Amino acid sequence: MVQLGLQLYTVRDHLEQDFEGTLRKVAELGYQGVEFAGFYGRTAEQVQQILQETGLVALGSHTQYDRLKNALAEEIAFNKAIGNHYLVFPYLAEEERDRWDEVIEDLKVIGKGCAEEGMILCYHNHDFELTQKLQGKPVLDVIYEKVPANLLKAELDSCWVAFGGADPLEYIVTYRDRLPLLHLKDVVTRADGSPETVELGRGEIAVDKIADAAISADVKWLIVEQDYCAGDSLESISVSMDWLRAYSKKRGTLNV
């Protein structure tokens, strides 16, 4: 059965003030796993200790591109120590988006290094990989064509697929054989056309249909993420968990 996780970037303001206390609150809300986006100066032993205390699973870690290229062994060792198996390429800076051929070759090398150590490399998309084209196709498709599935899996951000003008349901079907992780998030479009992420069920994304498709595709983790919270971020993830519980009550497909 699919498990429910939280991308901790959502509550970064609380983590900066109280890392351990925030993880306790995340667990109390019912999230089963957490995806890290930094460790706030904690050692692997300290992270493992709070995970054991709370029962949370380290489901993944967003790891910056330069660290994946230049400190992969160190990152692998840290993540193995906390029980995480997924290193995630999180974001490509705008100034680097004119050299996709080099990025793709780097992904092959990093993916091979991960595989040799029993780790799994995933790619987390935003909207620009859908709107930017390479060889007449969305960049995201070219990445998955050129990097073999045994070296690179998908962490599909369904919201950004939709905001990029594509159909997340189609992408889930297309890449279901390499899709262990899926970001479930909602968004509203501001008056100027820019996106604002909101709690699940409060935006424009058909998050129920996306969750249905993800479960059908045997995704291992549905991961809540809210890039920006207008109010308190812990309250936002509580509202999203309420949505997940209501969804599960209807579908009977989540363990919440």
TrEMBL record:
Pfam annotation, one family: AP_endonuc_2
Xylose isomerase-like TIM barrel domain boundaries: 23-246
One GO MF term attached to the UniProt entry: isomerase activity
Keyword vocabulary terms for this entry: Isomerase
Classification via SUPFAM superfamilies: Xylose isomerase-like
Domain of life: Bacteria
Protein name, per record: Sugar phosphate isomerase/epimerase family protein
